[in-house]
Specification:
Blueprint lengths: L1 E6 L7 H16 L3 E6 L5 H12 L5 H8 L1 H16 L4 E4 L1 H4 L1 E3 L8 E4 L2 H8 L3 E5 L2 E3 L5 E3 L5 H12 L3 E6 L20 E3 H9 L7 H10 L3 E5 L7 E4 L11 E5 L3 E9 L4 H11 L4 E6 L6 E8 L4 H10 L1 H4 L3 E5 L2 E7 L8 H12 L6 E4 L3 E7 L3 H11 L7
Parallel strand pairs: 1-2, 1-9, 2-6, 3-6, 9-11, 10-12
Antiparallel strand pairs: 4-5, 7-8, 11-12, 13-18, 14-16, 14-17, 15-16, 18-20, 19-20
This protein binds adenosine-5'-diphosphate, aspartic acid and magnesium ion.
Length: about 400
């Protein structure tokens, strides 16, 4: 079998963990499998590299930032190759350049376009265990790009798809996908299975156990994923197209603190203004999430929207530069907000779900400042300081619904 495994940063955080993972990889190899392993940077390396950059410039060039933060993954694969060699087995480490992992040109949030498989395949034919850097790619200028935080999951799934691997296993520091982050909600339950669509929503809404792009690629190429612990042998969670178990109303709760809210005040209440504002943001590659427009009064209106906190500076700058052209009076923002969401395939046909969620928030005394709903999710925007409390209150309210 051809097996792709991915180990996250905490699974390779120190020499002891590196050897623990090396032994697991060797066990898989010894069973006669071809093994490709994608690794993340050790422990908090990526955060430390970002902090180092900010000591030089709080707003560094994105190209140089990618050059810097991609180095963590290169350390991991080289160290792992050394550990596997030391244990007496053949291994070779490869970075994005050596493999040929091609992305679009967008620094810091690049999308994979194509992965060359020749080098990996020839190393496998030479009986090597192949260790590939997660998170990084190269663009058409031969520059290093990165895939966004948590992007190593995406590298792994994309490689599994490109190689038509028999298995793609994501090893992490929890036993699988839970009904909520088990570090925040103590009675969260592990799910045996979850569909791509539900996992996609949970990941996009902040459940960082999988990078949302990785789930998109898994769904597109029908790669079945297993999420499990690198520290024990428990079974983990299978992510796939259909699940055998009965569809539940709500399959999970997610919280996201990488959120900020911008309000553009006093925009003329005339056609085309929303178009002007959001096409300006789109042109600058800034994605927006929840949008709320006030009812026009005295010929003007306010438009508020949420976006990733990491895009806040860029967004404020472009809006300020264009304030006159938009005809707006002012732009204000709030950073200490968070989005809490519930996800479930059964939601569309059950009108009571939203009310149950709002009731949980009311009972916890937490104010909701924005709401967004779709067929499979409901999200509320709240003060950041209430995130954990809100997740627990909502999880409690839906506890029965989450029994699988
Ligand atoms: P890795 O370094 O292995 O990629 P991450 O820290 O990126 O690990 O992701 C694993 C973490 O995701 C867990 O430690 C957990 O705190 C968090 N998490 C958030 N939501 C969930 C969820 N629904 N199920 C499991 N883990 C979750
Ligand atoms: N090292 C990168 C990060 O910390 C990528 C990853 O861990 O998946 O975001
Ligand atoms: Mg991760």
């Amino acid at each position: 079998m051809l097996i792709v495994q991915k180990y996250g940063g905490s699974s390779v955080a120190n020499p002891e963990r590196v050897f623990n993972v090396a032994k697991r990889i060797i066990d898989t190899y010894k069973q006669g499998n071809k093994v490709v392993v994608v690794l993340s940077a050790q422990g908090k390396t990526t955060d430390e590299l970002i902090a180092k950059a900010h000591e030089i410039d709080p707003n560094p060039s994105k190209r140089e930032m990618d050059m810097l933060i991609s180095t963590g993954e290169q350390q991991s694969v080289a160290l792992m190759a050394m550990a596997i060699n030391k244990l007496g087995y053949p291994a070779v480490s490869l970075n994005a350049f050596q493999v040929g992992m091609h992305t679009n040109r967008t620094y810091s949030n690049a999308r994979l376009k194509r992965i060359d498989t020749e080098r990996i395949e020839s190393e496998l034919d030479r009986k090597n265990i192949v260790l590939v850097t997660g998170f990084q790619g190269i663009n058409k200028f031969d520059d290093i790009t990165t895939l966004g935080r948590s992007g190593s999951d995406t590298t792994a799934v994309a490689i599994a798809a490109a190689l038509r691997a028999d298995k793609c296993e994501i090893y992490t520091d929890v036993d699988g996908v839970y009904t909520a982050d088990p570090r925040i909600v103590k009675d969260a339950r592990k799910l045996n299975e979850i569909t791509y669509d539900e996992m996609l929503e949970l990941a996009a809404l902040g459940a960082k156990v999988l990078h949302h792009r990785s789930v998109e690629i898994a769904k597109k190429y029908n790669v079945e994923l297993v999420v499990r612990s690198s520290l024990n042998n428990s079974e983990g969670t299978i992510v796939r197209e259909v699940c055998n178990v009965e569809k539940m109303l709500v399959s999970g709760v997610a919280g996201d603190k990488n959120v900020a809210r911008i309000s553009v005040m006093g925009i003329p209440d005339t056609p085309g203004k929303a178009f002007d504002l959001f096409s300006l943001l789109a042109k600058n590659k800034i994605s927006v999430d929840i949008i709320l427009q006030s009812i026009g009064r005295d010929g003007t209106k306010d438009i508020s929207f949420t976006l990733a906190r990491t895009d806040l500076n860029d967004a404020i700058n472009v809006i300020k530069e264009n304030l006159d052209r938009l005809g707006a009076k002012d732009v204000v923002y709030k950073e200490d907000v968070a989005k809490v969401s519930i996800v479930g395939a059964g939601m569309a046909t059950n009108p009571g779900i939203a009310a149950m969620m709002f009731e949980a928030m009311y009972n916890a005394g937490i104010n909701i400042s924005m709401i967004s709903t779709s067929e499979v999710k409901i999200s509320v925007l709240i003060d950041e300081k209430h995130t954990e409390e809100a997740m627990n209150a909502i999880h409690d309210r839906f506890r029965l619904a989450m029994e699988r």
